[in-house]
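One such given next:
>
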Amino acid sequence: DGEIVKILKKEADNLRPLFERLKKRIQKQPAKHYDETSWKVRGGTQGNFAWIMTGTESPEAVFLLGRSRGKGNIDKLNSKSNNIGISDDYGAYKKQFENHQLCWAHPHRKWRDLSESGELKEESRNICLKSFEQISAVYHDLEQTIKTEFDHQKTHDLFIDKISSFTKANEGDPLKLKKLKESFLKNKEKYLTCLKFPGIVPLDNKKAERGLRHL
């Protein structure tokens, strides 16, 4: 065991300059995806989490392993210049980016799962299903819109109205649905950063999620 540890440490030291060059290449890309997941590493220095950063222009990615879930890890990956970040709404990413795109796929899945929940009564499930259909329609509209030419201000205002509509509190909303609506409405501007950077910023964080699967 001791000999293997020495070999791994030596190779890690040899690869460190390559890691730093790769990280800088990704940081120079127009926008970056970030994500984290639980992943046990023997001798993890901080904890059992892995972090990823990957750019919007290439398949390259860098990882931090054996880490905590604290925001200090995003500081190690994120460059303060050219600072456009795409992530989920985990609190560690808050205030990390000049322009922050929150992933639509995450709340969309939460809405879907709630509409299929066996814990809810049929009446509540139907309310959640209707709400899920509403967010799905807006999600689809936004996906199509960013593929076309559009007036930013008019389109932004249109989607703010759409978001305000499907996040409006209604009598009979289950508690979990209320919380989903409140959270989405609070962060509505961050869900529309993709309109500011068409062709550069996607509206989901699937690239980082797919990158983590390599682990």
